[in-house]
Write a structure and sequence with these properties.
2 helices, 86 residues, mainly alpha
Length: 86
């Protein structure tokens, strides 16, 4: 049986999809890093302040979720606007 040529028909389309994959995976890593920084920072502050309830862990985790969402939306809108201008 003859083998099919597996090269993409449109290399620019493949390059664009890889670029999108890299962009969104980077966005995911940024979100995870911000969330982990909030959680571990809160745990550290709770140990330093010797609180009975994990107050700083809860507060910093909540702030990290809000901040990571803000950064993600801002980055997404910036990239969306940049594509429309080209």
């Amino acid at each position: 049986m003859p083998q099919k040529n597996r090269e993409p028909k449109n290399p620019r389309k493949l390059s664009g999809s890889l670029s999108d994959y890299a962009k969104y995976s980077n966005l995911g890593f940024q979100m995870v890093a911000i969330l982990l920084a909030g959680v571990f920072g809160g745990i550290k502050l709770d140990k330093i302040m010797n609180t009975g309830f994990p107050l700083f862990t809860v507060l910093l985790s909540f702030c990290a979720v809000i901040f990571s969402t803000y950064i993600s939306v801002k980055d997404f809108l910036k990239n969306k606007n940049g594509k429309n201008e080209k």
